[in-house]
Write a structure and sequence with these properties.
The structure holds 2 protein chains of 2 kinds. By secondary structure, chain A is an alpha+beta fold. Chain A contains 3 helices and 5 strands, in the order ββαβααββ. The radius of gyration of chain A is 12 Å and the shape is globular. In chain B, a hairpin with a 4-residue loop joins strand 5 and strand 6. In chain B, helix 1 runs parallel beside helix 7. Classes of the chains: A alpha+beta, B alpha/beta.
């Protein structure tokens, strides 16, 4: 089973069973998880799917591209060390992902 | 929930705006039935990737969905696909009944129009030949993808975003691609001359043939398209032709309902049509926009962002809590490896500032009116885009003299709006 645990900025947790190959952003959208907007559908144009990932998730989330790095400089809530664009993290079979969403995306 | 069908909200149009409207109604605590009707045979899906990742074969149609069937079920949103509303009858109480082309009757208490837009059709000899396509729907994109499989050449009629995105996608697949644009420059309706000139060079560098001021006489072919003939007699070979010359808002139902229509369904800043009990949102809606300067009292925007934001406003209005739409418009277009992001509306600009060198394929054009920042086209410059979008969103500006200095990040040149003073 592939699981994503979304924690909203107020601490509310939403646990969703994901599909391998689908991103954390798309998984949130499809299941109506609040706190992730993802207007551009994952093309790294909007930076409205900003999340803070756990250490464990950071380790399995893959490398950050230069474009993702630049887009993160313009998120609604200032980036932190564990900031990622959730459209860039594709789920891997059997893994569990933990992300916290910021208070604002736009 | 003691609701009957007569409490229902009918949302006509099951794309971004329609789905968001339903989602926001539920977020706002609405427990009455919602019926979302779409004329396509598919569950709601995202359109933007159709001309890009989908045509390049990077994703399949399954990847396009943006809400699962479970989500609709859990939120009690009835999705009716493959049904076109033929007529809507209103009752004296403000409710009414819609009738689909197959005769299905859908009673409603409240009505929302998120009908979107349809491709503008071209009237030319040969336009109905197999192999000539428009692109709006997933089915359109599937037909184009199938055509491109065996094609060697593509002619794109129209040098706007859709046309150039498809041209770039087909070029990436190795086809010979020609873009025919009737105007003297590409994407002329939306961007500055500098941005247009850049796209001309960039696409030519990637091997796309671009003809400006193109005058097309006919589409040629016997059983299927074989080429496009220009008025000067030149024939450009084409196994596939894509026509991308803009869209027309779908206002038929609004007109039938007697609502005010003026190249879009006229709405106020809270998404109310001329009958305030009916709301409209998305590509079909013509709305006053605080970001539009110059002579335009109302604008119709074609973007996911606008569809989502207007839908949220429309939902709040239906819930009896109208508030004004106010959000910085933004748009994007991915063509080959070139990412264009536009923040704001450049309409009515009187000056531009070029930031960076277009030949490096990384630059921005900032638009001004009376020295005040209106908008920016950012090419492979996400930082500039984010800085401008954020500045416009809070009423800030970037002085033109600072904007051209690439040694300073744009974010650092933002001048915050003056604090309100007491007089």
């Amino acid at each position: 089973m592939t699981t994503v645990i979304y924690t909203a900025h107020d601490g509310t947790e939403t646990i969703v069973e994901g599909t391998p190959g689908v991103s954390i952003m798309e998984t949130a959208l499809r299941n109506g998880v609040p706190g992730i907007v993802g207007e551009c559908g994952g093309s790294m144009s909007c930076a409205t799917c900003h999340v803070f990932v756990s250490d464990e998730t950071a380790a399995i989330a893959g490398e950050m591209s230069e474009l993702e790095d630049e887009m993160l400089d313009g998120t609604a809530v200032e980036r932190e060390e564990r900031s990622r664009l959730s459209c860039q993290i594709k789920l891997i079979e059997g893994e569990t992902y933990r992300v916290t969403t910021p208070s604002e995306q736009v | 929930m003691a609701a009957t069908a007569n409490d229902a909200t009918l949302i006509v149009g099951a794309s971004q705006a329609g789905v968001q409207l339903a989602a926001t109604l539920r977020e706002l605590g609405d427990e009455r039935p919602i019926v979302l009707v779409g004329d396509e045979p598919h569950a709601p899906y995202q359109r933007p990737p159709l001309s890009k990742a989908y045509l390049q074969g990077e994703i399949t149609s399954d990847d396009l969905i943006f809400r699962t069937a479970d989500w609709f079920a859990q939120h009690d949103v009835e999705v009716v696909t493959g049904e076109t509303i033929a007529a809507i009858e209103r009752h004296a109480d403000g409710g009414g009944e819609a009738v689909t082309e197959t005769g299905r009757r859908i009673p409603f208490a409240r009505l929302a129009l998120t009908t979107g837009a349809a491709p503008r059709r071209l009237d030319l000899p040969g336009i109905d030949l197999p192999g000539v396509h428009y692109l709006r729907t997933a089915d359109d994109a599937a037909a184009i993808a199938e055509g491109l499989e065996s094609a060697r050449s593509l002619v794109v009629i129209g040098g706007g975003f859709i046309g150039l995105e498809v041209a770039a996608s087909a070029r990436k697949r190795g086809l010979a691609v020609t873009v025919l644009e009737a105007a003297p420059r590409l994407v002329g309706r939306v961007v500055s001359e500098q941005t247009s000139a850049f796209y001309l060079d960039a696409h030519r560098r990637r091997g796309i043939d671009v003809v400006l001021d193109a005058r097309i006489a006919a589409i040629e072919g016997a059983d299927a398209v074989s080429g496009v003939r220009l008025e000067d007699g030149t024939v450009i070979l084409a196994d596939v032709v894509l026509v991308g010359i803009g869209v027309v808002p779908r206002t038929e139902l609004a007109e039938q309902l007697g609502l005010e229509v003026d190249g879009g369904i006229v709405v106020d800043a809270a998404c109310r049509t001329s009958d305030p009990s009916i709301v409209a949102a998305g590509d079909c809606a013509l709305m006053p926009n605080p970001y539009a300067r110059g002579s335009l009292p109302r604008v119709r925007l074609e973007s996911v962002h606008n569809a989502l934001e207007q839908a949220k406003v429309a939902a709040a209005t239906l819930m009896g809590d109208p508030h004004e739409y106010r959000t910085t418009p933004w748009f994007w277009s991915d063509q080959a490896d070139i990412k264009l992001q536009i923040a704001g509306l450049s309409t009515g600009y009187d000056a531009t500032v070029l930031r960076g060198d277009p030949d490096t394929e990384k630059f921005s054009v900032l638009y001004y009116r009376d020295g005040e920042l209106l908008a920016a086209d950012c090419v492979n410059q996400p930082l500039d885009f984010m800085a401008v979008r954020s500045a416009l969103g809070r009423g800030a500006t970037i002085p033109p003299e600072a904007a051209a200095d690439t040694s300073v990040p744009l974010k650092k040149s933002v001048v915050e709006p003056a604090a309100p003073t007491l007089v």
